[in-house]
Amino acid sequence: MSDADYQRLSRAMLDHIEATLDAWLDQDLVDIDSHRTGGLLELSLPDRSKIVLNTQPPLQELWLAAKAGGYHFRYVDGLWRDTKTGVEFLTELSAQLTAQARQNLQLPPLALAAS
């Protein structure tokens, strides 16, 4: 994948997550604060725990750090997949959000327009 494609896809994912968190806040579903600096998105949950999402341009990966551990994702066949288990990024992030927020939180799939 080209560096430009990686930047577009990783930025779209972080944008999607931020938009979903904003919608959850508007719906009074859960109050998760987010702070983004470039390719780093920090999520602060109601119990004061954090989940950190980070782009890794040299490796063309997305990283997720949560209470349960750290995960690396690479874009494969149209989805960000865990480099060890193959689990899709939004599925894993939803599981980690659910565990740390102690309520069912499911991120919707990200629909990307063809480039």
TrEMBL record:
UniProt-listed InterPro entries: CyaY, Frataxin/CyaY, Frataxin/CyaY_sf, Frataxin_CS
SMART domains: Frataxin_Cyay
Source organism, top-level taxon: Bacteria
NCBIfam families in the cross-refs: FeS_CyaY
Pfam families to which the protein is assigned, alphabetical: Frataxin_Cyay (PF01491)
Keyword Nucleotide-binding: no
Function: Involved in iron-sulfur (Fe-S) cluster assembly. May act as a regulator of Fe-S biogenesis.
Family: Belongs to the frataxin family.
Organism in which the protein naturally occurs: Roseateles aquae
Keywords: Iron, Metal-binding
Protein's UniProt keywords contain Metal-binding: yes
Protein name (database record): Iron-sulfur cluster assembly protein CyaY
